[in-house]
Amino acid sequence: MPTPVTSARQCLTPEAALALDEAVSVARRRAHAQTMSLHAVSALFSLPNSSLREACARARNSAYSPRLQFKALELSLSVSLDRIPAARPPVDEPPVSNSLMAAIKRSQANQRRHPENYHVYHQIQLQQQQLGSTVSCIKVELQHLILAMLDDPVVSRVFGEAGFRSCDIKMAVIRPLSRFIGYPRSRAPPPLFLSNLHKDATFGVGNLSYQFPAATGLLDGDVNHKRICEVLVKNKGRNPLLVGVCAYNALKSFTESLEQKTRSSLPVELSGITTICIENEVSKFVWKTRNDHELLKSRLEDIARMTDDSGGRRLIIDIGNLHNLTVEHSSVDSLNHIILQMTKLLAAHVGKLWLIGSVVSYEMYLKFVAKFPSIETDWDIQLLPITALRSSAAIDPYSKPYSLMESFIPFGGFFSTPDVKCSLRSIHPNISLSYQQETKSFEEVTTNLIGGPVSSVAGQHSSSLPSWLKVAELSTNNTSESFEKKNNQACLIPLVAGTPPTSHGFQFAEDKKKIAEYGSSDLTLVNPSSSLDFKLIPTVNNTVPPPVSTETNKGSLLSKLLDKPSMLQHFESTSFKSPDSKCMTRGSFDGHSSPSSATSVMTTLGLGMVSSPTHESTLKHIDMHFVSANATRIFPYHSSQQSSCSGSNSPGHHNYEKLKMVFRALSDRFPQQEEAISHISKILVCSRAAGEDRQAACPRGGIWLGFLGPDSHCKKKIAAAVAEILLGEHGNFVCVDLSSSQNTINGYTKEVRGKTVLDYIAEALSKNPFSVVFLENVDKADLLVRSTLSRATRTGKFLDSHGRDVSISNAIFFAASAFIIEDKHPLHLKEPTNADEMRILRVKGHAFRIIHGHISQGPKIVTEEQTPVNKRKLASRDVTALEKHEMFEVAKRAFKQASDSQFDLNLPANVDYDMDQEIDCYESHGEFHCQSRKLWLEDFMDSINETVEFQPFDFDRLADKLAKQMTDVLHDIVGSEHLLEIDNDVMDQILAVAYTSGNTCIVEDWIKSVLTKHLTEARSRFDLSFPSEIKLVTCDQIYAVELAPFLPPTIILS
Amino acid sequence: MGNILLEALNVRDINSTTTSSGAANTRKVLVLAHGFGTDQSAWQRILPYFTPTHRVILYDLVCAGSVNPDYFDFNRYTTLDSYVDDLLNILSALNVDRCVYVGHSVSAMIGILASIRRPDLFSKLVLVGASPRFLNDQDYHGGFEQEEIEKVFMAMEANYEAWVNGFAPLAVGADVPAAVREFSRTLFNMRPDISLFVSRTVFNSDLRGILGLVKVPCCIIQTAKDVSVPLAVANYLKNHLGGKNTVEILNTEGHLPHLSAPALLAQVLRRALSR
């Protein structure tokens, strides 16, 4: 039930009531039935000196311009207001809605908890009780009202849409607090703090008890000393050996402090303890003569006597730097004797005698232990790492407080003005209770804490107090008077003592907690999108078309075309592909070369398309089917589209003209992947055609294509070519390698640093929406990228790492992966097997060298054509370490799977322990990723428009061809009786060049020019009267190895 | 008791056993500890890479700007050991019995010390931008001269804001404005006196002698160019830490790769974790 405005007004301070009136008038103007939080927000913005507006200005996101963000806020606010339905009969004074009333109630409750105002409400309540009034009426201040309203989800959504976070605004509202600070103290008695006493006191103790579970020692608050004491009071490992570069200093400072303050609050077990330093004696003993031996001995005897005699006397033997005992010593026996003597001494006086020493490093200690293997247990040594260079006294926390204060007070609003009382209180809650009213109870507490029988508690307590208070405490006669005096003094000191004011003027526990909450909620708000991103996205497979519907419409030809084998048949029957040449089709396309003659095909590369009329028509024919088939596949829900696509009416015609163009341009450049190209081009053309017609029919944005299978290089080039062909000059090609082995984007160049891959893509897309994005190794993408991609395909929204949305409706995505399609329906992938390609791509550039040798007479008879090839094939088996590793992983996986399903008798039973461990470890890390990688890729590829399968590049064939060419050259130049042996590395390098350039012309040119030239030179250099072997090998030493494979401009002869 | 600490240091326990199903119990625990001048938000761009697979624990050092400055006890946090206490107390409060610890900068030092005290608790340390000692010494190049540091401290005292604005781009690498802004923010959030005190503590620390006590395998991650840590330091760590160590040099620059090159760091972290 809405609340009448008048009764709501009763709960508000005049300031807040004014805001409510404004809100009511806003609601009335808009003829809304109720006054809601939104109206109030709108009203608050229109108020002069609006604190909300000011808070927003400070909380705004620095990424946007302030004007823009306020504009956005205005817009989002007015849109939200517009959505509120109008009241049928316009109300004169729209009553306060439940949500706004709830906000008022919340802030009332909040203010009631606010101890600062405690006395006010206390008085009010008293008055009310006197008056017999039952309504608890707390006037809500505007600030609290704003805070409460910001909690309203409707309001925070409005702010959120404009890029504000309500928690930020809240912080900004709370932070200045100038009004707050001045207000109560000026005209009200000091607030009551009893309500906080308990909390603060327990906090102080609790805080400490977790700090030092065994906090016993207390010397100057030096942590090192404390830790040494901790060791000394232990039962086992009670003799500390300080380790560290600065250990010696720590040792000295400890012994010094012991000497100076033997009466101070050491742990009970250690009270009255003294140290005896035998460092000098030890060093003399080690470095000098036998006399010193006697000296040390007598000294130890002294110690023994001292501990025996005086009964109660407790000693710590300080042996100083252990370094002395590690040096090579002439009289090992006497040294051992000394050590033994000390061992006995220590064992005889447990609880009375301790040993302390220092060593500069652990390595040094190891040396020592190597010399005296049982020393650690004999001497009951506990190593204590020491890391601080100087004792803490050297760093005075209160040094130069003034300069610091100056430096941060002017940070407008961030830090409160140094109010003596509040700053003191906030820093040391216990002392904060020093207000007059509290003194009594405080005394009780403190005397309980300090004067109690347990000295360790006193120690804990006092360690949290600043030194000036500690002094007071240590003087032991802390009667209430002296303490009070101290406290009064304390109120004046903080500036001098340098306890700085905190960021929060009027702090008390609840408020702190609240801020902490805001802080944490802030944190979670920062990355909501990224954390959400990580839920594995379930498969949404809405792209697999229902194949049945097409059959009736389109007839049998179409349905046949729908599945791949039949399409292949069709290709072959129309002689697009000669049956005996699998990888090379360009020849048959051009129709002027025999299928086997790869040479001629390759040489015509790049010369442009020469298509005969017959092929033209065939192409056209196929185009039509492609188009129609494709239309039914991609847009099965739009049967009208189908007919327009497949028919010969103008849009369809337009399409296949375009398709033909794309197809020709692509297949021209990439003859080896003709099938893939035809697939790609038909998808592209149809998707685009469809995209022009309809806007929102398809929920996905952009065109997504999966490139599966080997031949990674060709994929990339095709993608680049598509960008060029379809988008022309205005287009933009973004190429990103998602594999983790690569440094993501072209090796982290300057402009890429600090961005994730997603940011990079998003930025490119926002700069130019007409982009082709090529995602290489999409299967190796990290989880973040994966989920973003999956989401992008589902929702058409591409989010960068900041959660910003980028439009992808005009973009084309090619997601490439080396995985091979094993089964299409449902999509099932298998691990890539393109070892050849991977090896070739890893080839580095080397220089070449020609070596001359005689053919050894004997069984080695080789037919020149086969030699290089066979050797190459052998070489491909000679895998590199990396591949070996990969193979091992595959094997392990296989083994894993086998062992999962059932016990395989064919597998060796004696798998050793190591192997098991490896697998375990693999399972926990690698397996998860590998398996999830594949599953995700299957999901992902399933969810995107189409997948295209690529054929492996036939390296063997190319190698054969090139080897033959080179042999021919050799025969031409030096005669046919000689043999050319091409080293595997050389051939790989040549292949790498041919492959990455996508053009064998370069290689052929190289053979014709460089190789011919050098073979001619070799003819004159070498004695070629006998049939001999000309070897072409690589050499690493002479040229620096270049990263990219290249064809060397010269060949070294030797 | 533990709760006070967890609350005070804003400990976040993601995918903890209590909130997830039974399957999550086996998740490895990953502790991400931020360095000087940042708070746990520095890991926010690394975090998504690990939340699907790990139980991740984040916390703020007591000196961080996001922690109530009242908790910073100037008498207590005079050496790194007190920070180690905090870390170990957090882990015990969360019932962690084994974890991988990723520590940046000063937290790397803290991790080293913690692993000496409780070797059983850590299965691996990943030290990002770590240094056993920042000051130069004979035969040791830590990157800073004592006089330089005194000047820095003077600058911090004189005008903290100006110092932050100068230091942040230097530390992050000026070519990543977003990261500089982020680092400046968290650095500026620290109360200046605390910031100064902590940096004194850090520069006053020398872990060289105790590195051999570390038996936990360590992965030392270092960027190719780091104003705070010279490259040689990574090697020094590798040679002196007592466990099995590896060094990963990130092909990027800056002392805060988790801000400036999160994807790159995440990859390396993942690799380090899987080993």
From TrEMBL, chain A:
User: Which keywords appear in this protein's UniProt record, sorted alphabetically?
Assistant: Repeat, Transcription, Transcription regulation
InterPro entries from the UniProt entry: AAA_lid_SMAX1 (IPR058954), ATPase_AAA_core (IPR003959), Clp_N_dom_sf (IPR036628), Clp_R_N (IPR004176), NBD_SMAX1-like (IPR058680), P-loop_NTPase (IPR027417), SL_signaling_regulator (IPR051650)
The biological processes this protein is annotated with in GO are:
response to strigolactone; response to water deprivation
Q: Which residues form the Clp R domain?
A: 8-179
GO MF term set: ATP binding; ATP hydrolysis activity
Signal sequence annotation: none
Pfam families named in the record:
AAA_2 (PF07724), AAA_lid_SMAX1 (PF26587), NBD_SMAX1 (PF23569)
Q: Which domain of life is it from?
A: Eukaryota
Family according to the record: Belongs to the ClpA/ClpB family.
What's the protein name?
Answer: Clp R domain-containing protein
The scientific name of the source species is: Kalanchoe fedtschenkoi (Lavender scallops)
Automatic annotation (TrEMBL), chain B:
Entries under InterPro entries matching the protein: AB_hydrolase_1, AB_hydrolase_fold
Name the Gene Ontology molecular function terms of this record: hydrolase activity
Claim: Hydrolase is one of the keywords in the record: yes
Which Gene3D superfamilies does this entry report, sorted A to Z? alpha/beta hydrolase
Q: Where is the AB hydrolase-1 domain?
A: 30-267
What keywords would UniProt list here?
A: Hydrolase
One biological process term from GO is: strigolactone biosynthetic process
Pfam families named in the record:
Abhydrolase_6 (PF12697)
PANTHER family from the UniProt entry: ESTERASE-RELATED
Q: Which protein family is named in the record?
A: Belongs to the AB hydrolase superfamily.
Identification of the protein by name? AB hydrolase-1 domain-containing protein
